[in-house]
């Protein structure tokens, strides 16, 4: 069977070494769906908000730093734009899992929500991430995200 190695500008190439799980498109897609489901709740999510959450996802220490920042706004939060998050969003949009709103933020579709809810109900996968998203909830508002980005770029 022939597989198209170039879908929507995303090129899939076989690698000699395994790609770490947190850099895989399927992992990022799943995590972004869970973020939309649990941390954005129908209001949509900006690219900067996705990036901030993804930047602080992979260790308990960085998760605690983000939660502390949200509570006090007195700690430093870093924002690094990861191109694989952008690629995952493009893939998700192409696959009908998300849609772009007029303000440029992303909203989960019914198809994406159904998938995200099934993943959320599974008691054996993404436990570390689910715990963080439950604690984070909607506390990282777009207003706070704008404050973070404006402070970073006004230096």
- Specify the CATH class: Mainly Alpha
Task: Strand order, main sheet: write it out.
Answer: 1-2
How many domains is the backbone divided into? 1
pLDDT averaged residue by residue: 87
**Count of alpha and pi helical runs:** 7
What pattern of helices and strands is seen along the backbone?
Answer: EEHHHHEEHHH
- Backbone CA Rg: 16 Å
What's the architecture in CATH terms?
Orthogonal Bundle
Helical residue percent band: 40-55%
For the termini, the CA-CA separation is: 54 Å
- Specify the biggest β-sheet: 2 strands, antiparallel
The class by helix and strand makeup works out as mainly alpha
Proportion in β-strands: 5-15%
What is the fold named in CATH at topology level? Arc Repressor Mutant, subunit A
Shape: globular
- The low-confidence parts are none
Quantity of strands, as a count: 4
Fold blueprint:
Blueprint: E1 6-7, E2 10-11, H1 25-40, H2 47-55, H3 60-72, H4 83-94, E3 98-100, E4 106-108, H5 110-121, H6 127-136, H7 142-153
Antiparallel strand pairs: 1-2, 3-4
Please characterize this protein's 3D structure.
A hairpin with a 5-residue loop joins β3 (98-100) and β4. This protein has helices at residues 25-40, 47-55, 60-72, 83-94, 110-121, 127-136, 142-153, and strands spanning 6-7, 10-11, 98-100, 106-108. The strands form two sheets. It has a two-stranded antiparallel ribbon. Strands 3-4 form a two-stranded antiparallel sheet. 24% of the residues are buried. It is built from seven helices and four strands; from the N terminus they run ββααααββααα. The chain is mainly α. It has a single domain (17-153), classed as Arc Repressor Mutant, subunit A (Orthogonal Bundle), CATH 1.10.10.
